[in-house]
Fold this protein.
Amino acid sequence: MSNSRVIVSLDFPDGKQALDLCQKLDPASCKLKIGKELFTREGPALVEKLIASDFDVFLDLKYHDIPNTVASACHAAADLGVWMLNVHASGGRTMMEAACEALDKTSHKPLLIAVTILTSMSQEDLVELGITNSVEEQVIMLANLAKASGLNGVVCSAKEASRLRTELGEEFCLVTPGIRPANTNSDDQKRIMTPAEAINAGSHYLVIGRPITKADDPLSALDAINASIN
Ligand code: C5P
């Protein structure tokens, strides 16, 4: 188990590229995130391989289905040995409680966090879904619902972190993407914060992809980020 607060996002089209990068990283210096593309291509075998190499893995599959199906999927992910997994808060209280109950029965209980409103969604998108709250109100409402349903935290923008920290307390885990070290390319991210700014705003864990995965020397890039927040 690493103490690092950096989760490296393995946004690769295949396992070979992901493993090539992971061989350059140290499991004591970071955790890893596997999302839908890599998981759909490589399946549980890659997750198990990385866990066997001592990496903590966040399985970012954002489950959203009927409670029984989500609970079973969460149980299956816990059996793989993942460190963290997630569901959509908009699946509702019964779904989230069923997921927590399923994880309570596992021997190795991962952290369960919720996605509130995807940062790709605009106010107009919410209106089309019949939601009249502002994006911010909806994020706060869903984060409160996730906490009341027993979840450990939420994925959120670092810009939302200080308000969520105030509303939901120190223990509720905030996992934030959209992080860029000073003087690096922001790529397609619009509302960015540096690692230190995000930690100061209340983030527990930083999801960071390209600033590490596309660096000439990924380990040095990771070390510099860790040094900036330690
Ligand atoms: O390369 P970069 O650091 O931008 O990667 C960020 C990762 O976090 C990507 O996997 C992206 O899909 C994910 N993410 C995000 N914004 C969100 C939720 C997830 O950038 N709101």
